[in-house]
Amino acid sequence: MSGSKKYSISLPEDLAETVRVHVGPGGFSAYVAEALEQRVAMDRLREIVADFETDNDPLSRDEVEAARTLLRHDQRSSGGAAA
């Protein structure tokens, strides 16, 4: 990731406090950034699947499960949380 920029966002207070307790001092921004990175990746994946299914049959359950297995393996290899 490139440099950082400060933003002001509003969050539900109970959610923000739960995160703050979970990550401790100084970890809030990194936690939020990681959550946003994961969300962007999932949004891009949905776009890829939608584009694929525009020109092809819908993915089968076996194909979806195979993709999940690959994602879990990649996340473990890169130190991310399992899906």
Structure annotation, total helices: 3
Structural class: mainly alpha
- Could you give the order of the helices and strands? HHH
Number of strands: 0
**Percentage of residues assigned to helices:** 55-70%
The end-to-end span amounts to: 22 Å
Main sheet makeup: none
Mean pLDDT: 88
Radius of gyration: 17 Å
Strand content: under 5%
Q: Which spans of ≥5 residues are poorly predicted at pLDDT below 50?
A: none
Number of domains: 1
Shape: elongated
What does this structure look like?
The protein is mostly helical. It has one domain. The chain starts with 12 loop residues before the first helix and ends in a 5-residue tail after the last helix.
Write the layout of secondary structure elements.
Elements: H1 13-23, H2 28-55, H3 61-78
Summed up, what is this model?
Helix content is about 70%, strand content about 0%. With about 80 residues, the chain is mostly helical. It is elongated.
Identify the notable features of this structure and list them briefly:
83 residues
